[in-house]
C-alpha cells in the first residue's frame, strides 16, 4: 500500500495559496485582496447574450475548436487591436480559460526533459503544467529595480537558454508583479527565441490592462508570428473569471498541436458562454478604454492607501495587482505576514515568494488585488492603517 498515491512529479504542488488565503478570509470575515477576481459583473450585453443562448438551447457540445462566431470575433479582435492576422478556421482555438491553453501548449510542445524558460515569480499553474509535461523549468528572476518596478538581468536570461530550450513562457502584463515588459526586453526575448529556435507561449490575459502606453504582443516582433502561441481569455477583460473561456492563436501547425492535446483534456467547454464572449469582443473601443481607466483609478487608490499605511509599494504598470515590500512595517517573511494579517487587521493578501523557485528573491514581497469596488479598497486601507498605529 503506497502512503502517498500522488505521482512524484506533482508532489511538490500543495493546495494553491489562493485556496488557503480565501478560506482564511471567509473564516475571519476579512477584506479579501488576495485572489484576483472582480467583485462587479462584466458588460450587460454579454451577460444577456449568455442568458439568451441558454434559453435558445445552445446547451450541447460546441465544435472542438470553438464556435465559428467566437473564433471569427477573436480573429477580428486580434486584427483590430494588435494588427495580427489569424485565420479563424485554422489559427484560432477556444479553450477552457487561459489555464487550459497554457497547459495544452506545454504538454503539446515539450518532450520529457525539454526546458521551458519563464520569469519568476510565475503564475502558479506554469510550474505544474511544466511538471506534468515532464519538462524542466528554467526561471529567470524579476527583481525590484531602481525605477521602482521590476527588471531582470539580460545575462541571466541569455544563460537560461540552451540546447534543450523548447518553449519560452512569457506573461506581460505580468501577474503578480504588475510589470509590463519594455520594448527592449521583448526584443531580447524575441531574438533569443529565434536564435535558439524556441516557441514562445505568451500569456496575455491582461492585454487590455496596460495603464500607460500600449500593450505589445510578442507575436508582432520580427520572426515571432510563426513561432508564437498567443493566449488570452475573457475572464479578466470582461470580468467573468468563472466562465473559463480562453483562446490560443498562432500558425496552424502550432494551434493544431495544441488542439490535439486540448481535445483530451476538456474536449470542449462553455457552450452558451461562447456566443456571449463573441458579443463582448465586439464591444466598441469605449468599453475597453473605460475598463482600463477604471482599473487605473483603482490602482492609484490602493497604492496611495498602501503607502499611507506604511508599505513600500512597487510600481504596477498593468494587471489587477500591485506588490508591496513589508520591511518598513517590520515584516521579514511574506508568508508569516499574510497568515497573521487577517487576525491583526482583517485583510487578506498573498505572499509572492510562493511563486519563485528562488524564495529569497521574494521573501518580503506580498501582492494585493485592486480589481474591487472602491468602497472595498477604502475599507481595506482603513484596516491596514492600524498596522502602523499599533
Ligand atoms: C487569471 C490568469 C490566468 C487564468 O486565466 P483563465 O482564463 O481563468 O484560465 C492565466 N494567467 C494569468 C497571468 C492570470 O492572471
UniProtKB/TrEMBL annotation:
<dbReference type="InterPro" id="IPR051326">
    <property type="entry name" value="Kynurenine-oxoglutarate_AT"/>
</dbReference>
<keyword id="KW-0808">Transferase</keyword>
<dbReference type="InterPro" id="IPR015424">
    <property type="entry name" value="PyrdxlP-dep_Trfase"/>
</dbReference>
<dbReference type="GO" id="GO:0030170">
    <property type="term" value="F:pyridoxal phosphate binding"/>
</dbReference>
<dbReference type="GO" id="GO:0005737">
    <property type="term" value="C:cytoplasm"/>
</dbReference>
<keyword id="KW-0032">Aminotransferase</keyword>
<dbReference type="InterPro" id="IPR004839">
    <property type="entry name" value="Aminotransferase_I/II_large"/>
</dbReference>
<keyword id="KW-0663">Pyridoxal phosphate</keyword>
<dbReference type="InterPro" id="IPR015421">
    <property type="entry name" value="PyrdxlP-dep_Trfase_major"/>
</dbReference>
<comment type="similarity">
    <text>Belongs to the class-I pyridoxal-phosphate-dependent aminotransferase family.</text>
</comment>
<protein>
    <submittedName>
        <fullName>Aminotransferase</fullName>
    </submittedName>
</protein>
<dbReference type="Pfam" id="PF00155">
    <property type="entry name" value="Aminotran_1_2"/>
</dbReference>
<dbReference type="InterPro" id="IPR015422">
    <property type="entry name" value="PyrdxlP-dep_Trfase_small"/>
</dbReference>
<feature type="domain" description="Aminotransferase class I/classII large">
    <location>
        <begin position="29"/>
        <end position="384"/>
    </location>
</feature>
<dbReference type="GO" id="GO:0016212">
    <property type="term" value="F:kynurenine-oxoglutarate transaminase activity"/>
</dbReference>
Amino acid at each position: 500500500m503506497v502512503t502517498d498515491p500522488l505521482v512524484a512529479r506533482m508532489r511538490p504542488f500543495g493546495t494553491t495559496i489562493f485556496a488557503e488565503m480565501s478560506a482564511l478570509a471567509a473564516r475571519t470575515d476579512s477584506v479579501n485582496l488576495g485572489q484576483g477576481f472582480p467583485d462587479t459583473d462584466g458588460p450587460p450585453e454579454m451577460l444577456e447574450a449568455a442568458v439568451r443562448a441558454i434559453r435558445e438551447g445552445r446547451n450541447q457540445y460546441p465544435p472542438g475548436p470553438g464556435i465559428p462566431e467566437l473564433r471569427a470575433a477573436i480573429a477580428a479582435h486580434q486584427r483590430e487591436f494588435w494588427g495580427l492576422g489569424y485565420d479563424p478556421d485554422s489559427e484560432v482555438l477556444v479553450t477552457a480559460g487561459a489555464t487550459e491553453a497554457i497547459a495544452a501548449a506545454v504538454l503539446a510542445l515539450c518532450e520529457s526533459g525539454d526546458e521551458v524558460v519563464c520569469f519568476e515569480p510565475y503564475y502558479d499553474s506554469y510550474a505544474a503544467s511544466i511538471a506534468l509535461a515532464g519538462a524542466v523549468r528554467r526561471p529567470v528572476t524579476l527583481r525590484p529595480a531602481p525605477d521602482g518596478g521590476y527588471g531582470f538581468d539580460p545575462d541571466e536570461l541569455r544563460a537560461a537558454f540552451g540546447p534543450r530550450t523548447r518553449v519560452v513562457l512569457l506573461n506581460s502584463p505580468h501577474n503578480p508583479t504588475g510589470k509590463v515588459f519594455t520594448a527592449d526586453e521583448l526584443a531580447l526575448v524575441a531574438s533569443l527565441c529565434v536564435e535558439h529556435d524556441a516557441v514562445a507561449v505568451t500569456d496575455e490575459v491582461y492585454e487590455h490592462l496596460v495603464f500607460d502606453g500600449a500593450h505589445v504582443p510578442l507575436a508582432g516582433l520580427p520572426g515571432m508570428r510563426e513561432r508564437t502561441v498567443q493566449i488570452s481569455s475573457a475572464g479578466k477583460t470582461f470580468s467573468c473569471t468563472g466562465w473559463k473561456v480562453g483562446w490560443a492563436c498562432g500558425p496552424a501547425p502550432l494551434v493544431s498541436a495544441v488542439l490535439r492535446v486540448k481535445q483530451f483534456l476538456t474536449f470542449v467547454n462553455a457552450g452558451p458562454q461562447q456566443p456571449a464572449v463573441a458579443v463582448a469582443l465586439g464591444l466598441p473601443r469605449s468599453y475597453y478604454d473605460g475598463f482600463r481607466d477604471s482599473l487605473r483609478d483603482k490602482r492609484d487608490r490602493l497604492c496611495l492607501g498602501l503607502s499611507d499605511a506604511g508599505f513600500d509599494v512597487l510600481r504596477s504598470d498593468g494587471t489587477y495587482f500591485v506588490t508591496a515590500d513589508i520591511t518598513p512595517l517590520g515584516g521579514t517573511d511574506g508568508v508569516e505576514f499574510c497568515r497573521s494579517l487577517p487576525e491583526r487587521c482583517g485583510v487578506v493578501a498573498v505572499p509572492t515568494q510562493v511563486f519563485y523557485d528562488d524564495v529569497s528573491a521574494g521573501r518580503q514581497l506580498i501582492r494585493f488585488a485592486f480589481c474591487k469596488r472602491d468602497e472595498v479598497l477604502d475599507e481595506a486601507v482603513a484596516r491596514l492603517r492600524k498596522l502602523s498605529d499599533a
